[in-house]
Amino acid sequence: MAEEFKIFIVEDDVWYGEVIEYHLSLNPDVTVKKFTNGKDFLKSLDEQPSLVTLDYSLPDISGEEVLKRIKEFSPEIPVVIISGQEDIGTAIKLLKDGAYDYIIKDDETKDRIWNVIKNIREKEELKEEISQLKKQIVQKYDFSKSIVGNSSPMKRIFSLIQKAIGSNITVSITGETGTGKEVVAKAIHYNSPRAKKPFVAVNITAIPSELIESELFGHEKGAFTGAIARRIGKFEEATGGTIFLDEIGEMDINMQSKLLRVLQEKELTRVGGSGVVKLNSRILVATHRDLAEEVRKGNFREDLYYRLLGLPISLPALRERGNDILLLAKHFIDEYCSENEIGKLSLAPSAQNKLLKYPWPGNIRELKAVMELSCVMTDSNLIEDEHITFNSSGSIDTLLQTEMPLREYTNRIVKYYLDKYNQDVVTVAKKLNIGKSTIYRMLQEEAAELKSANS
Amino acid sequence: MIMEEKLYSLDQLEALASGDKAFVDKMVDMFIQMAPESVDRMVTALADNDLEDLGAAAHKVKPSIDMMGIVSLKQKIRDLEQWGKNRTNTELISPLLDEVINTLNDVVQQLKNR
Lengths: 455, 114
Hints:
The complex is a heterodimer.
Chain A: E1 5-10, H1 14-25, E2 30-35, H2 38-43, E3 51-55, H3 63-73, E4 79-83, H4 88-96, E5 101-104, H5 109-140, H6 143-146, H7 152-165, E6 171-174, H8 181-190, E7 199-203, H9 212-217, E8 218-219, E9 231-232, H10 234-237, E10 242-246, H11 253-265, E11 267-269, E12 276-278, E13 282-287, H12 291-297, H13 302-309, E14 311-314, H14 324-339, E15 346-347, H15 349-357, H16 363-377, E16 382-383, H17 396-401, H18 406-420, H19 425-432, H20 436-454
Parallel strand pairs in A: 1-2, 1-3, 3-4, 4-5, 6-13, 6-14, 7-10, 10-13, 15-16
Antiparallel strand pairs in A: 8-9, 11-12
Chain B: H1 11-17, H2 21-47, H3 51-67, H4 74-86, H5 90-113
Helix pairs in contact in B: 2-3, 2-5, 3-4, 4-5
């Protein structure tokens, strides 16, 4: 049911007021209250009308004064001036003073008022929608829900995020590709006092080096070929909020000096401009590189490094997070089921084992993709190991990144060959030049281990 | 028998009322009651040489004259409003006011007899 729309008509012409009241009351969603003088109306302002139609020529107080008092009481209340005469100068002044519209009393007045009501209601609905979406974003990035993990490296990360939320310090987030650096940055922003202001993410690698300065600091009209209008940069866009500079390690050395100057001065100048703009945005940076190493190599300015280091949060690779892999896998399965409105799916022990043994070079991003595909591949409510497909390059380097006993490496190689040759033990034994019994024993041991792990 | 020219039209009012006859009757009754009050205010204002108030009174009655379809007064009431407000054409105000009053009286009479 639509919310009640309360219109106050302030009109000393009783006859005309009656006409307007009758016309507006035809809509059942609207309630109308009529006043014939300014004083009575002002006494009722605390009833918070949704719209005021105000006759400019009232007997006791001028329309201008009434408008001023309404705006002092609540600038949000839309006021439509209804005047018996067309006076462009007065109309412009009243609109500048905050009137929503200026309508002349003629045979089109009633239709114009309806248009105003329609526009105001649409605007209100949009405002409500935006407010709801903002709330949803805050809920989405409630980090106790958005960041899944129970491993000890992640407990430390949660503690650091909590510290970052409670202060305004610059945060540098490091971690391999796909470890969730942007998720952490959003969690910090949307749980901080800046949550209602913008979160502006900039991926340095995604912007050509010749455009990065204007993208970050904005430009004035005519600053360069193609600058057809003034444009504010990402730092200004993030005013009051947070700017997240992703892949900061990829920033060109010349641009690093410009960024350093802006951070030191706490103000910036748009490209092609001369005026300064005060900086008021929190800075979060992220990189998959070891910035200290980049400083040593001379690729990253040391002074900028120390200015950006702030509170360092180093995200662990997924392979270092133990059982978090399964927690995350289940989280992604549930998310997939909910988004696609299908019944719950669960992970078979064999699938769990497969997930735990994989080194996850693409980290959480890769896990999400693998789990979504597994949800698609299964024909029942159970995801088994055959539904889990790894797509990363799987180079020998990747395999060796995970330190494990030699026996485990052997098992993985054998399983790889079994998958490749359709579980044909005879062929695999020939290819690897080992006995069939070795393979059977290995499979039996693995089954026994899995059984005890799940009991 | 000479047919008296109808000086008003309720078309706009009836269109707004969408068949609600009671509303039309109510507005007509209100006009019958208020028109003489407006006339009195304008006459008094002219007698007191308070042309600004005469303009204000004309301004106030103008929307109802338009809405009641009194076409012959559409421009005249606007002239009275402007001349009074700006104190222009002062020698023309009195004869124009007479015309407006006569027409309004006739309209009221016609409305009473409708």
